[in-house]
Design goal:
CATH class: Alpha Beta
Number of domains: 1
Largest sheet: 7 strands, mixed
Helix content: 25-40%
CATH topology: FAD/NAD(P)-binding domain
Radius of gyration: 21 Å
Structural class: alpha/beta
CATH superfamily: FAD/NAD(P)-binding domain
Shape: globular
Distance between the termini: 39 Å
Number of strands: 18
Strand content: 25-35%
Number of helices: 14
Strand order of the largest sheet: 5-4-13-14-15-12-16
Oligomer: single chain
């Protein structure tokens, strides 16, 4: 079959690789003009890494990943260590080590694996038409392409989603929901003044978080969460790190070392965090959704990219094993995914509500629960997010 994929992010490129490996003719379109992903890095938990292993890029991904051996929470004001524990139980339970990776590095690897000749950038989709035999994609420059199947991996503001849910025909459009906080993130050189280079270190106080995770080449992925209204003005060129100094300037010395290391001209992103209420219509005829187009989620449990990778796995398995029709295979893919995705979207919401001070008593209780813990409850939560992954083939965790 010929398959069109709209979107060259993690979901779109991983799906393209999976479908190419099945022998399909795949072409990818994306509106971006170069590899400039939103966000500096991402968490690849065991379920996501397993899909990448299945796609044949496991060794390359391991080389991109940081050695994240331990996890620690520190008091944001004093710098006191509230708890510190090994993440080895996650690997032992799931059969795969997790890796934080720089998003641009991973996306470059996936795009190179798909092949530049199969990817067309600077192409903005404007409409989709499905006549029951072929799907036609129309782009802003007036060009079109047709295929046997079209996948919408075009992100939170998906044009393909509007077609699938009939919003492009006057139906109700699915809107995003603001999660209540803004995330600042980027890459810096790893610095032991902030935290050990093999540790995921998070400072917490006031419903805010400042954290670092190790990625390859001696770098740390950092992020700051600031609860605030949406739509606040920010100009990257003039404001830079000023909002971070305002929110965290009185925090512990480790946080001050992190703030001092940030070069806004090199790596600093500001992203308001939104998600989408779970919905269960991912397929219409020969058109299907995956990734953020299907389940835009807040990053509070680090499963957004992993869910997109799971989608690619489940979609490819469905197309490879079900032969009644394209439409039937896509419906089976949809049925296998929507409940799990909805569950993780809600888990991320719950986690965000606990950590960001929306209910001060609840957040204070969470801080207290961190003090002196051996991490077993946190490990259970991480592993619980992985257990239901389709890539586990029913084995689950040990």
């Amino acid at each position: 079959m010929k398959i069109i994929v709209i979107g060259a992010g993690v979901g779109g490129t991983s799906a393209a690789i999976a479908l190419q490996r099945l022998g399909h003719d795949v072409v990818v379109y994306d509106r971006m003009r170069e590899n400039k992903p939103v966000g500096a890095a991402l968490s690849l938990w065991s379920n996501g890494v397993k899909v990448l292993n299945w796609l044949g890029v496991g060794e390359q991904v391991a080389a991109l990943g940081g050695a994240m051996d331990d996890m620690a929470y520190l008091d944001g004001h004093s710098g006191e260590t509230l708890c510190r524990f090994s993440l080895a139980p996650v690997t032992e339970a799931t059969g795969q080590r997790p890796y934080p990776v720089a998003r641009a590095d991973l996306q470059r690897l996936l795009m190179d694996t798909v092949g530049a000749e199969h990817i067309h950038l600077g192409m903005r989709l404007v409409s989709v038409a499905d006549d029951g035999q072929q799907v036609t994609a129309t782009f802003a420059d007036g060009s079109t392409d047709t295929a046997d199947l079209l996948l919408g991996a075009d992100g939170a503001r998906s044009v393909v989603r509007d077609h699938v849910t009939a919003a492009d025909e006057g139906g109700e459009r699915i809107e995003r929901t603001y999660s209540g906080y803004t995330n600042f993130n980027g890459l810096v050189a790893a610095d032991t003044a902030v935290g050990p280079k093999n540790q995921w270190t998070t400072y917490v106080a006031e419903g805010k978080r400042a954290a670092v995770m190790p990625v390859a080449d001696g770098r740390s992925y950092f992020w700051f969460d600031v609860p605030q209204p949406s739509g606040l003005p920010y100009d990257a060129a003039t404001d830079g790190t000023a909002p971070l100094h305002e929110a965290f300037g009185h925090w512990a010395p480790g946080v001050q070392a992190l703030l001092a290391a940030i070069d806004p001209a090199r790596s600093l992103n500001r992203v308001e965090i939104w998600d989408i209420d779970p919905f269960h219509t991912w397929v219409r005829g020969r058109v299907a959704l995956l990734g953020d187009a299907a389940h835009n989620t807040a990053p509070d449990i680090g499963q957004g990219a992993c869910l997109a990778l799971e989608d690619s796995f489940a979609l490819a398995i469905s197309l490879a094993t079900n032969t009644v029709s394209v439409e039937d295979s896509l419906r089976r893919y949809e049925r296998s995914r929507t409940e799990r995705a909805a569950d993780l979207v809600q888990r991320a919401r719950d986690r965000g509500e606990e950590t960001h001070g929306y209910d001060p008593a609840r957040t204070a209780a969470w801080y207290e629960s961190l003090r002196g813990t051996d991490g077993s409850g946190i490990i259970r939560g991480i592993v619980g997010n992985i257990t239901g992954s389709p890539v586990n083939l029913g084995v689950g965790t040990l």
